[in-house]
Structure to design on (315 residues):
C-alpha cells in the first residue's frame, strides 16, 4: 500500500511538472505580448494597408494581435506587436502611396527603417514582418471600371502594381535583418459568398490575377506568402464586415491569424530558430498535452488498483 501511495505521488508530481512546463514555455500569450522594453521582448511589425492595423475590429481581436500571441508561445519569449500601419489609419493605402512617400518623414517605410535601426540598437530582435499592400489598387481599378471587365485598364494597373511591389520588397529586405521573415499576404474575394457564377466573375478573375502577381514578386524577392485567398473562398458573407463589405469581421480576423500561423510554421529553420528563447524546446512544448494525458491515465489506474486492493482485503 505504501508503495502504491509513493507511485501516486510521483505521478501527481509529473502532472504538476507538465503543467508548469506548459505555463512557462507556452503560456502567457497576452501578458507576454505586452512585455516591457526592459525585459528584452522581441518585436513583430505589421505594415501596409488596413489589415495590418486590425481594421475594423478591436485591436486585441485582430489577426495581428492573435499572431503576436502565437509567436510568443512558439518562440517561448515576449513578442510585442508594433503596427506601423496604424499611423495611416483612415488612409487608403496602395502600392503607389507606400512607395511614393517612402522617403518622407513619418511615412510607413521611413518609420520602418527607423524602427528596425532602433530595435537593432536595443538588442530586440524583430521576429517577423507582415505586409499587405496592393488590394486597394484593385479596389481603385474596379471603382474606375463602369463596365467590367475593363481588360486594358486592369492589365495596366497590374503591371504598375507589380513594379511597385518589387521596389517595396527590395526596400524592406535592405532594411531588415536577413533572418527576419517577410510574410506577404494575398487577398480574398470580398464578394465570394459561394453564389452561382462567382468562379468566373470579373472580380474573382481579377483577384486571382492580382494574387498571382503578388506571389511571383514574393518569390523574386525571397519573401514568404500568407495565403489570404483559399481559406476565405465562398465565405465572404460570414467573414466580411457588413458595414463596408470589404474589411474582415472578427471571424475573418481569426481565420486570417490561422493563415499567418500556417505560413510561419512552414518557414525554413533559419528564419525561426535564431529567435527562440534559450532553453526552449518546441517539440517538448508541443508534447505537453500528451505527457499530461499519459500521467493522468496512470494516476487513474493507480486509483482503480487501490480500490480493488481495498475491496479484496475486506475494505
Amino acid at each position: 500500500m505504501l508503495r502504491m501511495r509513493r507511485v501516486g505521488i510521483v505521478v501527481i508530481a509529473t502532472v504538476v511538472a507538465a503543467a508548469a512546463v506548459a505555463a512557462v514555455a507556452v503560456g502567457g500569450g497576452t501578458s507576454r505580448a505586452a512585455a516591457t522594453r526592459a525585459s528584452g521582448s522581441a518585436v513583430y511589425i505589421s505594415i501596409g494597408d488596413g489589415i495590418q492595423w486590425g481594421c475594423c475590429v478591436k485591436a486585441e481581436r485582430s489577426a495581428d494581435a492573435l499572431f503576436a500571441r502565437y509567436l510568443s508561445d512558439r518562440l517561448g519569449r515576449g513578442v510585442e506587436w508594433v503596427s506601423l500601419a496604424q499611423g495611416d489609419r483612415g488612409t487608403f493605402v496602395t502600392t503607389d502611396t507606400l512607395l511614393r512617400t517612402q522617403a518622407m518623414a513619418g511615412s510607413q517605410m521611413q518609420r520602418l527603417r527607423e524602427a528596425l535601426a532602433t530595435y537593432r540598437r536595443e538588442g530586440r530582435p524583430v521576429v517577423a514582418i507582415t505586409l499587405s499592400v496592393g488590394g486597394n489598387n484593385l479596389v481603385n481599378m474596379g471603382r474606375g471600371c463602369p463596365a467590367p471587365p475593363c481588360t486594358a485598364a486592369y492589365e495596366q494597373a497590374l503591371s504598375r502594381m507589380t513594379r511597385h511591389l518589387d521596389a517595396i520588397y527590395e526596400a524592406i529586405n535592405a532594411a531588415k535583418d536577413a533572418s527576419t521573415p517577410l510574410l506577404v499576404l494575398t487577398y480574398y474575394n470580398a464578394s465570394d459568398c459561394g453564389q452561382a457564377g462567382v468562379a468566373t466573375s470579373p472580380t474573382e478573375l481579377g483577384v486571382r490575377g492580382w494574387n498571382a502577381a503578388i506571389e511571383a514578386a514574393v518569390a523574386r524577392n525571397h519573401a514568404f506568402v500568407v495565403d489570404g485567398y483559399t481559406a476565405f473562398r465562398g465565405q465572404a458573407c460570414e467573414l466580411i464586415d457588413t458595414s463596408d463589405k470589404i474589411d474582415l469581421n472578427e471571424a475573418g480576423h481569426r481565420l486570417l491569424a490561422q493563415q499567418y500561423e500556417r505560413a510561419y510554421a512552414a518557414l525554413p529553420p533559419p528564419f525561426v530558430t535564431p529567435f527562440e528563447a534559450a532553453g526552449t524546446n518546441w517539440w517538448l512544448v508541443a508534447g505537453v498535452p500528451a505527457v499530461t494525458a499519459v500521467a493522468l491515465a496512470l494516476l487513474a489506474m493507480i486509483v482503480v488498483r487501490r480500490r480493488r486492493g481495498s475491496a479484496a482485503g475486506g475494505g
